[in-house]
Amino acid sequence: MLEAGSHGATRKYKIWMRHRYHSCCNRLGELLAHPTFKIKEQALKTLIKFVQLEGVHPLEKPKWEGQYLFPRTLFRAVVGSLLSPEHDHSLLLSQFREYLEFDDIRYHAMQAASDAVAQVTGQHPEVSLVFWNNAFNLLSAVSLPRQECDVANFYVKHTEPSDTWKVIHLKEHRKVFQAMWLGFLKHKLPQSLYKKVLVTMHDTILPHLAQPTLMIDFLTNACDVGGTISLLALNGLFILIHKHNLEYPDFYQKLYGLLDPSIFHVKYRARFFHLADLFLSSSHLPAYLVAAFAKRLSRLALTAPPEALLMVLPFICNLLRRHPACRILVHRPQGPELDADPYDPEEEDPAKSRALESCLWELQTLQQHYHPEVSRAASIISQALSVPEVSIAPLLELTAYEIFEKDLKRPLPKSVPLEFVPTQGLLGSQEDVCAQFFMLS
């Protein structure tokens, strides 16, 4: 009887201790929303340490030997608290980023993030911007290893990893990574997040997806938004077309439609022309398509600021260098008159714009530009184009301030040519009294 009583007391003590442990974890979870960052940081470190200890010393006995043990319940609660709809946890998530270097933490963080996004969006018809920013900060911090052999760094230590565990296989990480991003991107995101996602899409998301072509719906929808978002979406579509054999016949028509006067003044001007140069780099593009882009850019150049012209003019010349068939736009013997240009600037389809029937008279007009650097750049089109292309990379970020500073630092010439015409009178008559006064003076 005494022995049975001691076992009962031990069992009650274990139950009591477990309740105290869960109460402690709950209290630490509440402290993740504390206004003092130091307290939030210490609470997070303590909870993650509990995750490690609970994985080594599980609260429940494993059902079979060799079973993969990870405290999913506790860890999901931690991730759920980090993805709060009320509190901005950007600084705390930057601290959490260091734990994502561990393969098991990263794997379960992706699963927990997917569940948290589904839960919050299911409970709230209008999700706050704070939640979307927290979710994006966590998702964008996930970076998968490149090779299978790199998956060997675990936070919860195990003596003998089993080949049956999904957490040790890179393909399983890719599947979870893909499900996480697809679950996030299927929702209507704030416009600011659209741009952040699309900026990183080509190098941090697409290369790690199990099936990159599943992003086609998101990218095509983003393409229809217009403006900068459409441009950034075209970058992801370009990768899917060239690396994953995706068919998207409207790609260059979409890019052509983005060419309007605003491209010289938007924040992403440098990125636009960098990507446009990449998209038009293939020598296999049809001549009518390249001619349409060259003609549209030439027409827009008539009203562009000098800093944009110094980049656009070499860009057009590079197009002519890559595609000799388009040089007829410069060397056409009988160029069209100003009021008889066959090019249709209102046509959205570059194939129907009749650009190849026209000529680049706009560049000849720019040879009379008031800025000497622009007129010099435009005059190159009248000369024989050199074979090597001119790199536009140093010109992409050029600003009006830099041009002004360059002109101020230019040394003055020793002698300045002057032209003096004697006055012929105030009203043009040599007998004018004023003319006689000027001559006497």
Explain the overall architecture.
The chain has 441 residues and is mainly alpha-helical. The protein folds into two domains: 12-187; 249-416. Helices cover 55% and strands 0% of the residues. The protein has helices at 2-31, 37-56, 72-82, 90-96, 103-123, 129-140, 170-185, 191-205, 216-223, 227-243, 251-257, 269-279, 287-301, 306-322, 328-331, 361-366, 372-379, 400-409, 433-440. Helix 2 (37-56) runs parallel beside helix 4 (90-96). The protein is elongated.
Short description:
The protein is an all-alpha fold and 441 residues long. It folds into two domains: 12-187; 249-416.
Structural class comes to mainly alpha
| Overall shape | elongated
Question: Could you list the spans in which at least 5 consecutive residues all have pLDDT below 50?
Answer: none
What is the CA-CA span between the terminal residues?
135 Å
Order of helices and strands: HHHHHHHHHHHHHHHHHHH
**Count of distinct structural domains:** 2
Helix fraction by DSSP (H/I, runs of at least 4): 55-70%
Radius of gyration equals 33 Å
- Got a strand count? 0
Strand content: under 5%
What does the main sheet amount to?
A: none
The number of helical segments is 19
**Averaged pLDDT, please?**
84
